[in-house]
Design a protein that fits this description.
Elements (H helix, E strand, L loop, with lengths): L22 E3 L13 E5 L2 E10 L6 E6 L5 E6 L1 E3 L2 E7 L6 E6 L7 E2 L6 E4 L24 E4 L22 E4 L1 H5 L13 H4 L2 H10 L3 E4 L3 E3 L3 H5 L10 E7 L6 H6 L1 H17 L3 E6 L16 H9 L2 E3 L2 E2 L14 H16 L5 E4 L18 H8 L7 E4 L19 E4 H19 L8 H7 L3 H5 L8 E4 L8 H4 L35 H20 L3 E5 L30 H22 L13 E5 L8 H5 L5 E7 L6 E7 L5 E4 L22 H9 L1 E7 L2 H4 L5 E3 L3 E4 L3 E7 L1
Parallel strand pairs: 1-5, 12-13, 12-23, 13-16, 16-19, 19-20, 20-21, 21-22, 22-23
Antiparallel strand pairs: 2-3, 3-7, 4-5, 4-8, 6-7, 8-9, 8-11, 10-11, 14-15, 17-18, 24-25, 25-26, 26-31, 27-30, 28-29, 28-31
Amino acid sequence: MTQTAPNPTATTQTADPRRRPPRRLRPASALRSFPWPLGISALPDRDDAVNVAVFAPGVGALAVVHEIADGGWAQTPLAAVEDGVHHGVVEDLAVGARYHLLDEEDPNGTLLLDPYARGLAETPTEEGPAEEPGTEHHERGLDVGPVAAVRVDGAFDWAGDVAPRTPWRDTVIYEAHVVGLTKLHPDVPEELRGTYAGLAHPAVLAHLTRLGVTAIELLPIHAHADEPHLAALGLTNYWGYNTLGFFAPHPGYATAASRAAGPQAVLDEVKAMVAALHAAGLEVILDVVYNHTAEGGKDQPARSWRGLGDRTYYRHRDPHTYEDTTGCGNSLDFSQPRVVQLALDSLRYWVDQCHVDGFRFDLAPTLCRDVDNVFTQRHPFLVAAAADPVLAPVKLIAEPWDIGMGGWQTGNFPRGWADWNDGFRDVARTFWLSDQAALDAGRPGGSLAALGGALAGSAATFAASGRSPLASINLVTAHDGFTLADLTAYDVKHNEANGEGNRDGSDHNRSWNHGVEGPTTGHRVLRARERTQRNLMATLLLSLGVPMITAGDEIGRTQRGNNNAYSQNTAISWIDWRLDERARRMLRATRRLIRVRREFLADQPADYPRIPEAHYLHWFGTAGYPMTEQEWTNPHVRVLQLLLGSPDGTIDGLLVINGSANASHVTLPDVGFAVPLGTGADDSPTGLDAAAADEAGRAGFVLRMSTDLPTDHRQDECWASDDVFTAPAQSITVFRRD
């Protein structure tokens, strides 16, 4: 819906600028204005006047249409223009007032949003408010037609808020959606479910802290809009990857009380959520989408950036076609300095004003493409982020691929960044799912070599960029794709609810249904699925690198086979907190794996595993001797022992991994002899010096846990080097060696 500028000849008073209220044309103030900072900024000692600066290189004359104290609307021109920035002093624009931008030479009088707006609100009409209490409208994206920018006040009582600043090596990330995490939680009051305040509720915080995660990574909470094709299907953009404002929180995730009070209350609810998470020791990472906007294609109405400077803000293939490296139709042009500035200013705002601890960048290569649309490690955006005193200390995580030429860049981001490791995901799924399906069908599986590299933190992937395994964000699942439970229950996607004929979503899932597609009551199949889920979770949490768990995987959440639930603001996407015994077993296993990981790391030096000298990985076969090249590459060899630790640590860990269809007798390694160098999966040294070898030979092993339930009941049993342990089929068993 296109917004229309107010008509100065109309006589009917209304709160809706689209109803053509009286307009007051105000001359430029005599006060001096400035082209910086962009957006609205207060003037010293002038509560009734603000400086407004807008980068609008495609506009000849820009004005601000805004609410004033008597309830009417005024239009104030931004008379000064410097290097494409229109600026001026606007009087009587109070906190809480709505405002729009207007190209005074636009014959259509289209009202535009300020790219730097700190708050967005849907404009009420004479028929009533944009959303009635009790409706589900607040969970949708904004209806972009009647949206207005709103001036908000940044003041907030943080009451001594302290960022946890968890080191990368101790970080365990939990990816979640504000609505999906809390919508069905029985211990969260109904009025708080699906909201920022609900996420901050003690019941949710207790689950996260008992689970043992250290950071929550939230799917986009920037204000976003629904795409037109979804509205036609009666669906919404649930995930929120369609940004309408890079500085404004999405009002639909706030409580009804905050929405009724306005954008200031919405922002305060976000800040209170962050403070509560910090008080619980949890970092807050935001998933951010700077690669495209909600304005859509050339046939869609201008909403902000296109009306202000289409040729500058967006990358063009030709005068009539946007370049598309995102699949969304309009890639922002990060070869333009002002676009880089927009992203950096937004990031600094969320750190300074909202105290967030990091960001995950959707389709990050689009942000790092030069004037020739080529990804470069030394892109100004990357250089500026690394040098910025506000951004350099926070966690910066790249989704290191887009759909443009040269878009796959896993391992190629510079120091200071971590990458989502799709290679780890694919290897873990292949070993425990695709290979197991092959074995079940009587075919050979794959070799151990790829799994060894993944367990070692994909060192070869990140070495070229000068980074350690801590640059690897290891994942098996994410919001996009099958859940952990669905990986074990479906061979193919089932996205019928999305209204696209099941054509959307990936067909390459590396999943295995264990012989039955979808739900089943067969106990054998259910037990096998549970064991595979535990194996995948153990591989994730016991590997070098930084693990990321998708919310609900710890209790076996299902999306009923939907691997592209972006449009499902329904029970398909919401976590069902009614736990049966299978869910409780998965939750117990996940908690214990995180605890084992934490206890192991606590006994390693601070540099573990950031520098090679601070850690070792020793690989052994079933006979207790170092792995040979033939064993690494032989697809019939599916059993591996990994001893990991540090020369300066006080404990070692031993993983016994059996990826075969049968139990295997494994001789626990006698590490009291010198191990030949260069036989590790990551080509790291595997030898021990004489003193360490002698000490190792005297030590024994204590069984800590196993993904095989009968073996897990033998927890705390002691084993000596050279003892023979029967490794159950398709299992991981963890030993501790003091």
